[in-house]
């Protein structure tokens, strides 16, 4: 196990009716910018609950943050904050709204230099406007971590950053706010959560049995509950379990002391940047192809994963490894998630060339061993066709 420091300052307020707690969580006297996405918070009643809880605060609203939040839109919010002297941000929505809010919070005090530098060049964030969140879509874990992924339309890029200054002060998780979600968004959230876990877990043995079991607990929960969650999205306990699973998948706990992967995310971001696929859709396309490409270096963990998650314990090691990968694909299919580029009418050869070229230009070496090179990426994307 590697040395590590774990620190997470985000307060989680969980349960039905918890949006009312905003009145004690938001600092008194601040001027708030309320940020949200496409307007679903008006239909599900969350917007009304937020306004009721925040009576007495000065509040300005900013909507329209995209499912893949764009730099162009977020910079409009930055200008409003500077003009209106906003003190506090409140993100109400899913992971995209939270990610966008993190970037906005960091960009405002960044100064006159282009804040894209934070994303493109890893420029250090030394301050951020304080913010909290009301989560309405379980998926990304952004409600309890400091990371964000932002797109730029003008250059077809999708880049990420994190900073100790961009943890939410608090996040409210009310499972009832998810009851009106479309099935596609719930499906995406399940896949997103699942792949967040395996990108940390499914690497190579690292003498981390506790972290392995913590990760496996989340994976087993998703495999056992996914179909029920989709079949009855208004069943409180099932949705509460899913919501908490998504948070636990990426709040840092299961990754403590581990060498992690994240190659699927890196490749998937480029599919979104070039072709506009939802984030979870890219993960389901790339992950099985990546596992097959790296099955030798991942063999021991693939065998463990196959046995502990899907009960695969018969056959040769080669057969069991392939069975574990096939079971992963079957899990995605069972919840309605496509797993090939062809399902989205994307030309695999074109995609492979575009993404590999970008990896080469950035000198990317990805994966837990930093041994997935541009030529490997080219083959993985081809194999995902």
Distance between the termini: 37 Å
Model regions low in confidence, pLDDT < 50 over at least 5 residues: none
Number of domains: 2
CATH architecture of the largest domain: Up-down Bundle
CATH fold group of the largest domain: Dehydroquinate synthase-like, alpha domain
The average pLDDT score comes to: 97
Helical coverage, percent range: 40-55%
Properties at a glance:
385 residues; Rossmann fold; 6-stranded parallel sheet; alpha/beta; globular; 2 domains; Dehydroquinate synthase-like, alpha domain; single chain
Chain-wise SSE layout:
Elements: E1 11-14, H1 22-25, E2 31-35, H2 40-43, H3 46-53, E3 58-62, H4 71-84, E4 88-93, H5 95-107, H6 116-120, E5 131-135, E6 147-152, E7 157-162, E8 170-173, H7 183-201, H8 209-231, H9 236-249, H10 263-275, H11 279-293, H12 299-310, H13 317-334, H14 348-361, H15 374-383
Parallel strand pairs: 1-8, 2-3, 2-4, 4-5, 5-8
Antiparallel strand pairs: 6-7
Helix pairs in contact: 4-5, 7-8, 7-9, 7-11, 8-9, 8-12, 10-11, 10-14, 11-13, 11-15, 12-13, 14-15
Description:
The chain is of the alpha/beta class. It folds into two domains: 11-177, Rossmann fold, CATH 3.40.50.1970; 183-383, Dehydroquinate synthase-like, alpha domain, CATH 1.20.1090. 48% of the residues lie in helices and 11% in strands. The protein has 15 helices and eight strands. The chain has helices at 22-25, 40-43, 46-53, 71-84, 95-107, 116-120, 183-201, 209-231, 236-249, 263-275, 279-293, 299-310, 317-334, 348-361, 374-383; strands spanning 11-14, 31-35, 58-62, 88-93, 131-135, 147-152, 157-162, 170-173. A six-stranded parallel sheet has the order 1-8-5-4-2-3, covered by helices on one side. The chain has a two-stranded antiparallel sheet with strand order 6-7. Helix 4 (71-84) packs across helix 5 (95-107) and helix 12 (299-310) packs across helix 13 (317-334).
């Amino acid at each position: 196990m590697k040395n590590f420091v774990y620190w997470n300052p985000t307060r989680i307020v969980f349960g039905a009716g918890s949006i009312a707690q905003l009145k004690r969580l938001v600092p008194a006297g601040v001027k708030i910018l309320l940020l949200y996405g496409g307007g679903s918070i008006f239909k599900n009643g969350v917007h009304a609950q937020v306004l009721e809880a925040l009576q007495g605060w000065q509040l300005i609203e900013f909507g329209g943050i995209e499912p893949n939040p764009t730099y162009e839109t977020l910079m409009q919010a930055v200008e409003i904050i500077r003009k209106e002297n906003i003190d506090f941000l409140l993100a109400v929505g899913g992971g995209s709204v939270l990610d966008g809010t993190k970037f906005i919070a960091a960009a405002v005090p960044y100064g006159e230099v282009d804040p894209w530098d934070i994303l493109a060049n890893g420029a250090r964030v030394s301050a951020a406007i304080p913010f909290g969140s009301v989560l309405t879509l379980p998926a990304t874990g952004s409600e309890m971590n400091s990371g964000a992924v932002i797109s730029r339309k003008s250059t077809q890029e999708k880049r990420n950053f994190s900073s100790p200054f961009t943890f939410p002060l608090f996040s409210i998780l009310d499972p009832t706010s998810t009851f009106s979600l479309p099935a596609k968004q719930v499906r995406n959230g399940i896949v997103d959560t699942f792949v967040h876990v395996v990108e940390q877990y499914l690497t190579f043995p690292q003498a981390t049995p506790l972290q392995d079991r913590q990760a496996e607990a989340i994976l087993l929960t998703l495999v056992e509950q996914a179909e029920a969650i989709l079949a009855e999205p208004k069943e409180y306990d099932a949705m509460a379990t899913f919501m908490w699973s998504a948070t636990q998948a990426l709040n840092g706990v299961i990754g403590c002391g581990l060498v992690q992967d994240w190659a699927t995310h890196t490749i998937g971001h480029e599919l979104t940047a070039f072709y506009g696929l939802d984030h979870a859709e890219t993960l389901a396309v790339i992950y099985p192809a990546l596992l097959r490409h790296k099955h030798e270096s991942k063999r021991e963990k693939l065998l463990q994963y196959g046995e502990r998650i899907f009960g695969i314990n018969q056959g040769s090691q080669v057969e069991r490894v392939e069975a574990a990968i096939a079971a992963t694909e079957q899990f995605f299919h069972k919840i309605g998630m496509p797993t090939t580029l062809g399902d989205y009418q994307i030309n695999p050869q074109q995609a492979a060339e575009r993404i590999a070229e970008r990896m080469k230009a950035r000198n990317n070496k990805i994966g837990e061993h930093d041994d997935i090179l541009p030529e490997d990426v080219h083959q993985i994307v081809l194999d995902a066709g």
